[in-house]
Design brief:
Four copies of one chain form a homotetramer. By secondary structure, chain A is of the alpha/beta class. The first copy, chain A, has helices at about 20, 25-40, 95-105, 120-125, 135-140, 160-175, 200-210, 230-235, 250-265, 300-315, 330-335, 340-345; strands at about 15, 50, 110-115, 115-120, 140-145, 150-155, 180-185, 215-220, 240, 270-275, 280-285, 295, 320, 350-355, 360-365, 370-375, 385-390, 395-400, 405, 410-415, 420-429. Chain A is built from twelve helices and 21 strands. An eight-stranded parallel sheet of chain A has the order 10-9-8-7-3-2-1-13. In chain A, strands 14-15-16-21-18-19 form a six-stranded antiparallel sheet. In chain A, strands 4-6-5 form a three-stranded antiparallel sheet. In chain A, a hairpin with a 5-residue loop joins strand 18 (about 395-400) and strand 19 (about 405). In chain A, helix 9 packs parallel to helix 10. Chain A starts with 12 loop residues before the first strand and ends with a strand. Chains in contact: A-B, A-D, B-C, C-D. At the C-D interface, helix 4 and strand 5 of C face helix 4 and strand 5 of D.
């Protein structure tokens, strides 16, 4: 039997287009980010280039969806890239040329989809790949996304339903897709009293990937995924969102600590609870609302480092949200700390050892067997944090300053600045 | 200012096609019922002939909806009768000829609609009556009915939204419609945490009727309408459902007592909380499921009389659900008790005076100022019910047996059979 | 059968000690207010003097409850007045002497109780009036008030339970009590998912009053009472709270409009949905928290008049909350507008005719058959309100300014100041 | 810093008195079970003898609580054993003599407590160990257990609160207690919307144990403990209930599979999600209700073995609920399968690998590194279960039949009887 875990033995690292381009990215923008990744980030392990939502919508420009817009679709009710935005898709080649180009850079290519079948296919009653089965016959009529008008859910009990999903992933495999972010599925918000109502669609997608002949990372959105369903998520997906959309807001960062405390026991090879994209650097380039438009992240430097530290100590997937070609030195330094990225990729036993309203302490073991400890000040004011090390701890190596300090007593008392965090490797006697 | 109450100064009485034909009634069936009403029921006050859901769907046959079926629609995104089912609608005459024929019988004509604009209009992006405004521009994308695929809600804040509803009721007025049952609106079940989410659409429909130049009864479904919104309902509608669909089940009948206890203070001219259709006589003629098909009502005779008694004492609208041409003598007798129908139409001060798990007692004053009292045994076993009359009560006239009994003591002790109920006029000294 | 409605054929009007003294009022303070009422308010219909919560707690001083404090109790587990606070209660005379004195003023006397039996009686297992039945045997162990430690609920199914309540009201009748405000009963907050869990205790109290040989107004607190239970409330009580505690906050006043729209159909002789005390004049005399202490009401003059206008148009009970002996002229004028108080006491058909986020309009018919109309601006800024009168309206008499204006057109356009309201009698042609 | 995990490095195994004696066990009964354990079960790892609820209540006889009964209490508001039930407690020796006797058998002794302070102490306002602090001053007045009247919660913010808990555990340490089951704490049912409202009391108890000078297992009841709080539970307790009370009902057993799927990642040394007592053998010896009284477990033999298999594969604590001295051979065989108990005590990596409505498959690694696999048929009818082993699996050793079968193909197809389960050690090539 296929093991879906091999597709993501370590947390996926990459770039996702949503935070800077919303639904409106185009081929040139996507490839520019890919080239930057090849030149500056690939050496640190970054590899996925993910094109987010609505690449099949010709008029999409930013995060505002055009309700009921006409979507590009093939003869089997499958969405295909809008050629005006992705010219290489012309001639029915879909994302194949872009995937080829990204693969040629030594990187991997991902796409976003919404669960279901296009509403326009259902209303036009267009064919599916299964002879005699039309879009209308497999749609689950009441199952809609509350924030986007593109799709109806697919009814798992309808003949032709699994075949439809199979036909989707066959197409994606033929393009060379390595990563699929499926949305409106880990928490189906139209049904607040039953957030996991798409359970059967998750299973159909898992089967479709297993059969498509190409290994793909399966990423589920949006969050919060219900923790009661952790087992089902682990059996079927490679990563899934633990929160709603994460943006550069301090309260959301604080909330993430609680979510990491809930989810850490479920972290492991092939199964990555996902803290969402890193909203760092330059964001929302194409927004029209002046409150948000083309801004630098609103997080303080301390908070930005806390994002990286927490995502790494928890082993979240790392999907960068800012425009790579506009990276400043500080932000670049945040995502190229090789020692910290190794914690994210290769550590084990990651867990909180203290967690309260004021502070958090996480530990793990790095790939060489060293103890790692991270201190987080959750308050926006300086605070002392104390911790009692074992007798064999001789010193602490700071993974950011690269300096080593001696531990004179087993009890260490650190003063952290507002929302500051620090990560140390423990030096043993 | 127009007074919407004049459209229904007494509880509407009529026939509705749902309980016997589901979504599939046709012109011949509808008119056959109308003719029966003219010949046998009109003299008792019955007057509305209401064509229920999906008259615009050519393939509808019974209560099973055909998901995403093509609907008959005019050039302004308005649904029109399916000519294969309603031949007189040919030539763009809509329901005009049927309304004319029913009016000629001295009766009134009603139709059912679902709130919103057809999904097919939205996906085809067809015009509305307002130049420059298409269906897509006024649809509220996430607002769907969870049990029927015909419509999207209309966004009250979109330019052209009110005009669209105005255009609907203009059309209905031109046909000669007297009664509109609007569905998916009094309780929008897709949003269980916000059942009155269609508040603004109710207001748009109210305005559209006020402007259409023809008086129409506005009936809202389904129930339960939220009692917290009683004031808004009374300001805007003439009747609204207090319960979910009422069928011939004993538990539903018991539940109706509680609902009547909650709603009775809101009963008054032009404002009729609605206990739903009377599922009596022969029901579901065209169902294919053998458990339900073409059956006689499952209520016992006692229960059937209790339905009539409660609906009349509460002053619910009376919409008969069974096929009129198949009426047996007992059922006919139930709906032609002139004295009881006068209670329904003309009594006042209707209210419960006792209400517990075992029994209910309701009183009112009839049009001549006599006291009326109804005793209900809610248990499926014989039970005594006692009641203390005032000193001036000399006797009780039974509205069903037409017999009068003397009251020897102010305390009256009645024994009622299983689920039996009795209605008396009090004879004063 | 007794008719509980005769105890309150019109909305009760009086003074309640909570808003100015919390749980700490004493005999002198209570009688001072009674004397003021006799001298200045009785002529306007004010008649009840109600001693609020914890008169049996010797150390009570203000609104802060002393958890588990020792309570004064007689030999049958019944609470009795603390003699240090109510010296006339000495010698086992209870509230008898105070009631006598208040009756001698031509006024009526009321007390507050909490449903249930004292926890101290349960834990000491003291006797009840029923031989062989101790407090412990009738207590409902888990049924506690979440904001006060005095009582356990009484288990209606326990032998001796009804007798215990009977013994309470016998005692109150012997004292001469005319009004009982029972608390922790109309909404049992310890059980948020079942707010009407004290249904059986309400029934026991109703029976106890019916048997006690003295007519008493039964008032139930706190609110919100569940509107689904309106029928049960009307069968058993004379007034019940529609909201949580009402204080001098603008948002609470706005909320009251919505509650009045929900409850107005249930208003009638003997049945008075209660908008709570009037927090006007000087409040919270004995509070120690400097934010609240001994302040004038925070409502603006417009808001204060709106309180009176709404309470009168809705026909709420009127229980004044401020210290009467400190009444300023403006506040006194608010509660001595004889014409408006007659609306409260004797009008009929009271109902809203418009109600939205910006404004409300209420109408009723006064005791002489004149139309009364009240306009409320709900916004904190001046706003015009238009209204279309019938053709026979010639003028409007303002119940506050006592001036009459002509209506030149059937459409009247009024400009109201921030949160202002006005009440008019319609002058007919 | 103390490590609370050392108190329970493997899942605790023992006997608990609730399932056979309710609240009414006495010294002789407890010691008889201890002696049986010493003679027949100790060799298999069984070691705790736990006296369940209300040992301080002289009149307790079975599972029916005597509401508000007088409790035995010392001078510091601490409950002490009722001497009529536990004669060795005379002379203020508490549970010391019983603990000594059990220790002398080579076993360990546990008691049950309810969080909080006795209500009788609060109402009598008795002293606590802290000078000047009485019971009343530390009680949290509204915090009650909905099914037992003994206690009020303790307010963590009150001076003297921690000292009171410290004084409890000092006393228990002085007696020689090794295990404390604290009830009404892991899910505070009086507050259905906030089940973890006793969070602060859990922390106080944790601190009190850490300071008391004796290692004690901390077990929290009842369930379901909220999984969102898994981290807090793991930081503070050694075991906590994942479900409500588990009795011999098939539906409860099925539900336990789902709970184990949710909780397994949290299983580890010192942290044991608890599936509750094993309701096997002879139960409820002293019940008076004839439906339950002194019955054999209602589980079928297959179900009984499934209980043991699931509890062992999940690594739940094993607390036997039946009367040990009445053990029949079959039941004895269930709890003395040394190989299976070793799975419970020493295996690792325990997790489900398949879980659906029909079947479950769990795997783990035994202490010698062998793969263990368990198959569960969840249906009450025979069913085939297939499983694909790796190429290196040569055979399966059945831990119950002790027989080994060859695996001829990597795909194994087993047929399991109704609700049957089987556990195998994988024999590698």
């Amino acid at each position: 039997m296929k093991d879906k875990n091999t597709a993501a033995l370590t947390p996926p690292m990459g770039f996702n287009s949503w935070d800077c381009y919303g639904a409106g990215i185009n081929e040139a923008q996507l490839l520019a980010n890919a080239r930057y990744m090849r030149d500056h980030l690939k050496a640190y392990g970054w590899e996925y280039v993910v094109c987010d939502i609505q690449w099949y919508e010709p008029t999409a420009q930013n995060a505002a969806y055009h309700h009921f817009a006409d979507l590009c679709m093939d003869g089997y009710s499958r969405l295909i890239p809008a050629e005006n935005r992705f010219p290489s898709a012309a001639g029915g080649r879909g994302f194949g040329p872009i995937a080829d180009e990204i693969h040629a850079m030594g990187l991997k290519f991902g796409i976003h989809i919404l669960r279901g079948i296009p509403r326009q296919a259902v209303h036009r009653n267009t064919p599916t790949v299964t002879p005699g089965i039309t879009a209308r016959m497999i749609a689950q009529d009441y199952s809609v996304c509350p924030w986007n008008t593109d799709m109806y859910g697919v009814d798992a009990y309808a003949p032709g339903a699994q075949e439809y999903y199979d036909s989707l992933f066959e197409l994606y495999a033929s393009w060379g897709v390595d990563f699929v972010k499926v949305d409106d599925i880990a928490n189906t918000e139209f049904k607040p009293t039953e957030p996991y109502s798409a359970r059967k669609e998750i299973e159909m997608i898992r089967s479709a990937i297993d059969r498509c002949g190409r290994e793909m990372v399966l990423s589920l959105s949006p969050g919060p995924a219900p923790i009661e369903e952790a087992f089902h998520l682990k059996m079927n997906a490679n990563m899934w969102r633990v929160s709603g959309d994460f943006w550069d807001r301090s309260d959301a960062l604080l909330r993430m600590f609680t979510l990491c405390e809930q989810w850490y026991p479920h972290v492991g090879p092939g199964c990555w609870p996902d803290c969402d994209m890193l909203p760092l650097g330059t964001l929302q380039l194409t927004e029209t609302d002046p409150r948000y438009r083309a801004r630098k992240t609103r997080f303080t430097e301390n908070e930005q480092r806390t994002v990286i530290n927490l995502w790494c100590m928890f082993r979240s997937p790392l999907m960068f949200g800012g425009e790579l070609t506009l990276l400043d030195d500080f932000t670049l330094s945040l995502i190229t700390n090789r020692e910290l990225l190794e914690i994210n990729q290769f550590s084990s036993g990651n867990r909180p050892v203290r967690a309260n309203e004021d502070e958090a302490i996480w530990t793990c073991t790095d790939k060489d067997g060293n103890g790692i400890i991270a201190f987080f000040n959750k308050k926006p004011a300086p605070r002392p944090i104390s911790y009692e090390f074992g007798d064999d701890a001789a010193g602490l190596y700071d993974l950011w300053s690269k300096k080593t300090g001696k531990l004179r007593m087993p009890v260490c008392l650190l003063t952290l600045g507002p929302c500051e965090s620090r990560v140390f490797r423990i030096i043993h006697k």
